[in-house]
Write the structure tokens for this entry.
Amino acid sequence: MGIISDVKKCDYQAAVSSLFSQIDPNMRVDAREQTIPEMREYMRRIGLSYNALNYQVIHVTGTKGKGSVCAFTESVLRNVHKARTGMFTSPHLLHVNERIRLDGKPINNDEFADAYFSVRDALVTASRECEDNEFQSLPSLPGYFRMLTLMALFVFAHHKFDDGMGIDVAIIEVGIGGRFDATNLLDTYAACCIATLDLDHTNLLGDTLEKIAWEKGGIIKGSCGPAFTVDCNTVSSIDVLRCCADDVAAPLNVIAVGSRVKLGEWTLGLKGDHQVINAELALSLCEAFMDRHEVLKGKKSINSSNRIDSLIKYAFENTSWPGRCQFIRPSRYQDYIHIYLDGAHTLESVSCCLNWFIANNGSDRYRENMLRSRKILIFNCGHERNPVDMLKHIVLARQNEDESLFDDIYFCCAKSARPSAIPKPTVQSMLEEAGMINAVPTCHEEKLECSWQETLAELWRYLDRVFPCKRVSSLHVGVSIEEVFDGLHRETVDSNVPADVCVMGSLYLAGSVLQVLEWNEGNAAGRISR
């Protein structure tokens, strides 16, 4: 372990470089069961207690929508109930400090560096002094996500806003699963929820919704506040969640989607009909927090007599969550290019994103004297996921929904991605895994140097043959995101035909597009105070 000079200890880039050196792509799956006791030991080493915090916690898991639930919850608590908020989510889109937010904004670079080196130094010092036989073999520094979790908890405990106040509540999103996730180390929280379940991370969590529900249900604790889920989850997965709650003598509340947040009556800042699910969960979480907050601190909600009022509608309407059904009209492209951006990376989320795109693209509200827009898809996903069902859904949507999907498809590499020790699959193996038994290898696939984007293009070509459509999309591989948008801009200006661009498949891809567009949301004010 190298020595980091004091000069660098206030430097954000030095902190980020050191943090990324802690990534272990070969971490064993069987080590997950030790996560909670090890995280509690790390927490003790940095001077924090997992069961005695100076702020309340709301814990959120699920396969889809958990980040949106966090964003809605944070907006309501801050805008309606005047709570000072912290939020920990993953992954980040552009910069790693986006994962830790204060009053809705990412932590600033100086505070991120301060938090990283404060936690790092405390862990190194405590490791040298450790006399506990149980944890003597524990690495002095945890892995990447564990370190970020510790940093978030450290910031939430010590941050002071410019007015000298600390946070009232931390909204914490699970990384993967829940039961053995690094965020599940706390013994107390105001409320928790399990958002929409879907098949994802099946190599870790299991290959059925019931197995995944058991993993997610592990965040329910009898010593804490109420747990919530939504009735759009399958009956069998809700039954598993009930068993998880019964095991710890905790109540599970199943929320009826549309019972309070109704389409047409509410305007949500996060677009897409599916966001109603996440807004319903957020309402329940906020109410549970305020009930607990009033008891502990004697504060009355300014909205306690009527929770569903104009203030909450304002908070929902002004909720922002980058990379999730985000509509962008870049001024540099003079309204010739409209971008529909979503980090959708499961079958159901891809379906939601595509429905949102179909319902909204081609609008002439902002364009005059232009012909019908071209439909463009930019797609990429991590090779750990089997993209067959996602791409198949898009191919079939041309037949069932809109034959104009898509004029051009670009398979672009994201600028950053999580390191992975999992080998890239072939078209043949992915089709066989998806149950398409007539799969045949292609000549392109046999190339040893074949990129993942070339593999995705070959997969699309195969699906296009199996499910033919009148429109044949032009496929593009090996083109950077910058080159895609620069080329589209030239073509749209020359032809006076605008382009509606749908970006989906990965949050890393969404972040890469935002980086190319030089998108920025600013940083939180304040500092760490010891």
